Amino acid sequence: MKSLNNIFFAFILGLLLFSCKKENSSISDLDTLRKNNNKISYPVTKMDSAQAISSITKQKIQELFDLSTLYTSGNRDTEIDSIIYSQINNYFLVQDSQKLKPIFRQLDSLKVKSAKVGNIEVRKEMKNNDTLDFAKFDVEYFDKDKRSIGIFNKNTQYILKAYPIKFKKEFKFYFVSFDIPSPKDSISVGKTK
At the top level of its lineage, which domain of life is listed (predicted)? Predict the structure, then answer.
């Protein structure tokens, strides 16, 4: 009888263990987008290579496109749309609606529902005594049925602004201008004698 009680107790215990279902702890894309606000800073010690700068730049560009496609798919007159708009503005050094209009216009005209950033190349250029940071990247647009609309080459200028916090050297990432024309690869031909 005692062994029957032990078997019954083990069976009940096993049922209790297997009946507990594990909740899915993954964060939805909407929750991720809702929390994007360009307030994360990165310590300089982790930024000792161009690969790290390239990775962060790609992440910020992707976040900007995610928020922009979310904004353009809405009515643009709700409270959440105004919050998304202000989040997009926080990615720019100078908050100006004129910098956002070309992005929204292209997304609207192509009816883009999502975008994926790829093939990023960061470079520095010297202009007078200033060093300017640029990124050249490809972005693939997708429609509502997740079909590819096309891959577009883009350029952006960004800045890493010092943001010291209690004896730590950190910085914040901002776009100076977005979707700027490509620099000319060839030398212009002049008159020859």
Answer: Bacteria
For residue 134, report the phi and psi dihedrals to the nearest 5 degrees: -130, 155
d(CA 192, CA 7): 100
- Judge whether 88 and 64 are in contact, CB under 8 Å: yes
What's the pLDDT tens digit per position in 16-59?
666 665 555 555 566 666 666 666 655 554 445 677 788 888 99
| Residue 134, domain CATH | 3.10.450
Q: Which domain holds residue 122?
A: 48-177
User: How many domains are contained in the chain?
Assistant: 1
Q: Which residues of 150-168 are buried (b: 16+ CB within 10 A; e: fewer)?
A: eeeebbbbbebeeeeeeee
